[in-house]
Amino acid sequence: MKVIFMGTPDFSVGTLEALAEAGHEICLAVTQPDKPKGRGKEMQFPPVKEAAVSRGIPVFQPKKVRDPECVEYLKRFQADVCVVVAFGQILPKEILDMTPFGCINVHASLLPKYRGAAPIQWAILRGEQVTGVTTMQMDEGLDTGDMLLKTEVPITPEETGESLHDKLSEAGARLAVRTLEELAAGTLQPQKQGDSPTPYAKMLDKKMGNIDWTRSAAEIERLVRGLNSWPSAYTRWNGKVMKIWKAGVRNEETGHTTEKAAPGTILAVEKDSFSVQTGDGVLLVEEVQLPGKKHMDVQAFLRGNAVVPGTLLTAAEP
User: Fold this and answer.
1) Diameter of the chain by CA atoms?
2) Contact present, 43 and 34 (Cβ < 8 Å)
């Protein structure tokens, strides 16, 4: 098929490459404009642009893809289908209806669950054991189009937002190739979504990582995993913002206090972890990071830092 590919972040790259390797003609890669990054504010290509340039695929970077001149430009390519993966802009009806097969979206959830911008992380935050990828025929709603194909991906107890991102990117790439095969063969059977059983998977922001120690240990542990690698979970310790990169839940009684300590209180320090009282249960902190320092396990952290039982961890601003 002749494909216009629309996507921006790392998650999209696997699908772009899989479609090209499957023999589809990617006639254009549409992605977000370059952005300044780092201290030098040098302009950096979005990941999809980097991948497209390396393959010799033409790149188009409109500020607003819905502008009439952008729509007319896309029409010139006379593509068979648009494949959209985390593009980052809402498509107008003129683009949705522009090609014979319309716009096919690769969404990182088992729709109608977790419609929205951050389905990967919210599946972990909500304690799901299984997630997956859905391809759908896009309509004018937000992730509401008819479902085409699905594939499931289990969420392991150690799963992080980053590791699940990579698994779903690979699964989505395979599913996109299969979807175009069946689309061309006329064997797809679209299904309506119905209402979503889960809240909208809203975009992540840094404030979400600010740990509320009155929440349960299980919730905080999922927060740590779900927001790894961005924006990360964090707290305030000895006047500094401490990021927590790995933690576990201690289910048994701690034995360190005769009555429940205030949420956020460090209860005990072991050689490779320290335990913190939460609103329900105890969290074992295993990997941390201070500003300007490397991410390290607690055993290494304790060689240069004294963590004292009874210290109160509090909410912090990054």
Assistant:
1) 74
2) yes
